[in-house]
Amino acid sequence: MDVLDNSTLAVMQARPWHPKWGARLGATYFVHKAFPWLGRYFGEARLRSTLAPGLDGIVSWGGRLPAKTAMRIARLRKLPHWHLEDGFLRSVGLGKDGSIPISIVVDDKALPVDAARASRLELLIRDAAGGLAHDIGAPIREALVEHRLSKYNNLPHSEPRLDPSTRRRLLLVDQVFGDVSVEKALGSASAFDKMLDDAIASGGQVIVRTHPDVIAGHRKGYMTERASKLPGVTLMADKVSAAAILAVVDEVWTVSSQMGFDALLRGLPVRCYATPFYAGWGLTDDRVEDRAQAAHARRATARPTVDQLTFAAFSLYPVYRHPKSWKVLEPLQAIDYLIEEIAANKSKG
């Protein structure tokens, strides 16, 4: 087994649901190719094939076909399985551009976006609601808001181009069609239609945040095409940060986007038309379909504050590692690193 430093040992002790350090873990070809650095989170040994002998367990990334294949193999081989994903604070650049995340999450129960089952994140939020997490959660939330950070931090903080209005400004977040989080959060295409219908009926200024690739016709959204044909609805595809958008709206309505979580951290009212991890706790106005009622009943047993939610999502759940030295970081150290990276990128530009 690899020698453990004190910081890595502390992470293991705080997160007993993780694989043991140095465990022999299998992963699909997709994971090997897309995340060659991933083994650094579990020991110095490389990840192996899901079919290799003598495995201690199997890991998968996300919720698409390779992940489903890995889960099936784990079941057939009667091996433990862990779901992996980017943390809620990821990087300055995008993963598709090769940016290594500063954090990942490891879940032995379900993906964090999966509302049909209680993920490890859901259990941590429930537990945080029963404790005194404000002293840790509040400084993290305040630092994220002060430095205008989100999951990705590659876009400028320029003010979006919007028509002036005296009406309440409602931001509706469209998502790319087929987004795994929509189905996993017990949402649907009809949830986006209902969200748009409700917004129009409200009399507010309706702004639909869409993806630039959807506007360009490269991808399909759930409601962009319909919204573009409705009078009085503004499509926003400006390449600006989440913080810049949230600074100029009064409410955020979403199905399962992390934009709703960013809005909660900033004290904005959030309405959810599905069950992302931050919904169902009494912090959001939830307008869900019948199949999500069981998930909401399960979460109704706890009522965390926003700072307790922050503590669970940014401190208890993820593991932070410096993407060059691989040293374990605390959440505020990870925030400092991203601030430095953003400043360095600005000086280069």
From TrEMBL:
<dbReference type="GO" id="GO:0000271">
    <property type="term" value="P:polysaccharide biosynthetic process"/>
</dbReference>
<dbReference type="GO" id="GO:0015774">
    <property type="term" value="P:polysaccharide transport"/>
</dbReference>
<dbReference type="Pfam" id="PF05159">
    <property type="entry name" value="Capsule_synth"/>
</dbReference>
<protein>
    <submittedName>
        <fullName>Capsular biosynthesis protein</fullName>
    </submittedName>
</protein>
<dbReference type="InterPro" id="IPR007833">
    <property type="entry name" value="Capsule_polysaccharide_synth"/>
</dbReference>
